[in-house]
Amino acid sequence: MSNDEDQLGRYAEGQRFLFMAEQCLNLTKKALDPFIRGYGLNHSQYLILMILNYADLTGEKVISTELSYLLGREKHTITPLVESLVKAGYIQRNGDSGDRRIIVLTLTEAGKGLIRKVQPLTFSTLADIPFGDGEMKNTFFAFLETFRRTFAQKSGQDPELYSGTYNRLLVKGESKLLEGFSGFNPKER
What we know:
Layout: H1 3-37, H2 43-58, H3 64-71, H4 75-87, E1 91-96, E2 99-107, H5 109-127, H6 134-154, H7 159-169, H8 174-180
Antiparallel strand pairs: 1-2
Helix pairs in contact: 1-5, 3-4, 6-7
């Protein structure tokens, strides 16, 4: 096989992956939609609340730019989402005591209450994502990390901005999040 044929084959595989990944993400959103929409949220708003919930559990600070890294979106698309959640009373903007230019986003008590209501409803949908066994799961997440780093670089971004924020705000908070589910029985939902 020539280099041109090999590159064409990889291109076709890339297209197949792109469409399959898009389908999987959108089907996951559709499965979560009834629970999220029932509380007047769209998927992006829900993810922002979840990120702020993780930060609350670990004592981390979150700014809008970090939300854009975690969601893989441009910062200007995050601003209206944050504004809608502020107006709804679910999050608040706070000045950072160390730097007045930084605006930290936090959940309000209403936001925390909303997460406590919605999160258990989404439990079985997210728990049913078929990652496979330990080795397969590790391979899957390693692939996604490589993918994220590769395309962060291709888009002119520092990959560490994406993976660092992800690890600091989400991975670090997983154990705390799971502690909150102690005694939770998903079959009762």
